[in-house]
Give the backbone structure.
Amino acid sequence: MGKKIIVFTTFRDFDGKTNDKIQRFFLESVKNQTYKNYVLAVTIFGEKGVPEALTESGLPHVLYRDTSRDYKFSWSQTLLNGITTAQDYPEGCVLLWLNADSVPAPDFFE
């Protein structure tokens, strides 16, 4: 089946506005990947609607919440959460950062 791909990312609010639509397009592009051995490691920095949107998407995911309550974006924290998720896969994995406004081609994970 190949190595697990850990896609670590974060989102803005899912509020029906432009970013919401772009982010849902991103989730759909991940869902359409031909390589299915992946999990999203998502860090939430106070954004609204993220857990609901991920559940609705049906994509495999792990959520991390900013516990500092500063609600300031931290690339380092997002990366560390991806690494934390990777520790669950001792057989090896690939860490992949994708912004939620990316639209990877269907064979990108291949």
